[in-house]
Design goal:
The complex is a heterodimer. Chain A has no helices and 9 strands. By secondary structure, chain A is an all-beta fold. In chain B, the strands form 2 sheets. In chain B, strands 2-8-7-4-5 form a 5-stranded mixed beta sheet, with helices on one face. A 3-stranded antiparallel beta sheet of chain B has the order 1-3-6, with no helix packed on it. In chain B, strand 4 and strand 5 form a beta hairpin. Classes of the chains: A mainly beta, B alpha+beta. Chains A and B meet through strand 5 and strand 6 of A and strand 4, strand 5 and strand 6 of B.
Chain lengths: ~110, ~160
């Protein structure tokens, strides 16, 4: 799959308070070819091509790591929670079977009140 | 679904019944509290968490009762845990026990997550149980399972 087709999206709250547990929602466009589906013309199984690993860091510290298998749907969605510490960046990385990685950065805005 | 794709499915079902009849599908001796969990799923679970006997509480699975489209089914898993440095969930593993490949995903947590919760969308081949295993920092494992009816399978078969 050409990398230009892949569009990672991440959504977090605009502002969070220090210590707040906030939700991180991620979505990446990817076919997640399971390796189980037969080709319509040849009848042979289409080769597997999925995103097999996902990770997220918050100011350089890993806050989520995941191994993914063919049981995930196409355009895989993942949501989880993180405790807000300081303002900074979260970086997200998806790696597929071909070894291509897709990344996304978002800014975390921690407010004092 | 067209008739063309429905046909091989029936054959496979037939084969399955034959296998079951001749006793080729052996029941595993592993003492998991997994009443009807297929052997392949038990093997996949053991591969990830080792020979622990998971306990039956703490893991909550939120899943629709019926999925019309098995291609994308929303799944939420939460685990009762204070998520402190001393006592937190380290991993949540998910399995779809009747899928051709039962592994779905493994997510790794720490106290920085605040809540032991994950939400994903999965593929389901047919009506089956979704199984979630949580591992905690004290070395214990917890299991949760929920049945879901699938109208149209999502594995392309």
């Amino acid at each position: 799959m050409a990398s230009k087709d892949i569009k990672p999206r991440v959504r977090i709250p605009k502002k969070v308070k220090k210590g707040q547990v906030f939700e991180v929602k991620t979505l990446v466009t990817h076919l997640m070819e399971s390796g189980q589906r037969p080709d319509k013309d040849t009848g042979k199984k289409v080769a597997r091509d999925i995103i097999n690993s996902f990770s997220a860091t918050y100011n350089g510290k890993t806050v989520m790591k995941a191994d993914w298998h063919p049981g995930l749907s196409a355009n895989p969605f993942a949501a989880f929670y993180v405790v807000a510490e300081d303002s900074g960046t979260m970086e997200f990385k998806w790696v597929d079977d071909a070894g291509t990685s897709y990344t996304k950065k978002v800014n975390v805005n921690v407010v004092s009140e | 679904m067209s008739l063309g794709t429905a046909k091989p499915k029936n054959i496979r079902r037939r084969d399955f019944i034959k296998l079951a009849g001749t006793g080729t599908l052996a029941i595993s001796a592993i003492p998991l509290p997994a009443h009807s969990t297929p052997v392949s799923t038990i093997a996949a679970i053991e591969k990830l968490i080792g020979p622990k006997a998971p306990q039956d509480d703490k893991v909550h699975i939120i899943l629709p009762e019926i999925a019309e489209n098995g291609g994308t089914v929303p799944l939420k898993i939460s685990v009762d845990s204070p998520m402190t440095a001393e006592d937190h969930v380290t991993a949540i593993h998910m399995f779809a026990d009747e899928n051709p490949l039962p592994d779905v995903a493994s997510f790794y947590f720490g106290p920085h997550n605040g809540k032991a919760f994950v939400s994903i969308r999965l593929r389901l081949a047919k009506t089956q149980n979704v199984v979630a295993i949580a591992e905690t920092s004290d070395g214990k494992a917890y299991i949760g399972r929920k049945k879901i009816k699938v109208t149209i399978g999502g594995c392309g078969g």
